[in-house]
Amino acid sequence: MKRILGLLLLFGLTLGPAFAQQTSSDDQATKEDVEQLFTTMHIREQMRNMMDLMAKQSKQMAQEALKKKIPDITQKDLDRIDSMMDRMMKNFDLNGMIDDMIPVYQRHLTKADISAMAKFYETPTGQKMLREQPQMTAEAMKAVQPRMEKMMADMMDEAEKAARESTPEQKPSTVKN
Questions:
Q1: What is the pTM for the complete model shown?
Q2: Does 110 score more than 50 pLDDT?
Q3: Cα separations (Å) of 100 from 34, 91, 121?
Q4: N or C: lower Cβ tally within 10 Å for the chain?
């Protein structure tokens, strides 16, 4: 789940650069401005596609990790975990997430920023960026997957080691009379 949230954050950063500036109420972007930008950028479709891709990759990584940790895991168990992940992804509130993003964009982007971004994304280059972004992101995720898997395995090993070290061994106590 942390991986999914991290990838969503990465996705949001690549599609909608948020400029760290304060806006006055006169030039603050409205909810409608941001919604129009999201429509121009095809945010709903982009996020749905990313969610589908992440779900597929997450299931694959989970199966590989489980097979390494539990060599005798059955295909039935793996299928049950896949089914659980599918249910979780199906219940993911995409529209709610987009609604949650709007005030963030409003805080960081002015009407002029939104207008400039919309103009860019309406150009052939902007549309190409929107078309190519999912594939570029998928390829980037695939490229970093081995590094992420190693980092996750190292973290799990460290966590297991820390857990073993923090549990005092049960030794019989000696009682002196």
A1: 0.59
A2: yes
A3: 12, 17, 22
A4: C
Q: Taking the CB of residue 126, how many other CB atoms lie within 10 A of it?
A: 16
- Contacts of 17-21 with CB under 8 Å at 24 or more apart are 18/104, 18/105, 18/108, 18/109, 19/108, 19/109, 19/113, 20/108, 21/108, 21/110
d(CA 29, CA 108): 9
Q: How far is CA 71 from the centre of its chain?
A: 28
Give 61's Cβ-side CA count (13 Å radius).
21
> How many CA atoms within 13 Å lie on the side-chain side of 38?
23
Q: Which of 37, 3, 175 is nearest to 105 (CA)?
A: 37
CA dist 17 and 13 (Å) reads 5
For the record, the structure tokens of 96 come out as 């709610």
At which residue do the structure tokens 């929107």 appear?
A: 130
CB distance 58 to 4 below 8 Å:
yes
The 10s digit of each residue's pLDDT in 12-25 is: 555 554 444 454 55
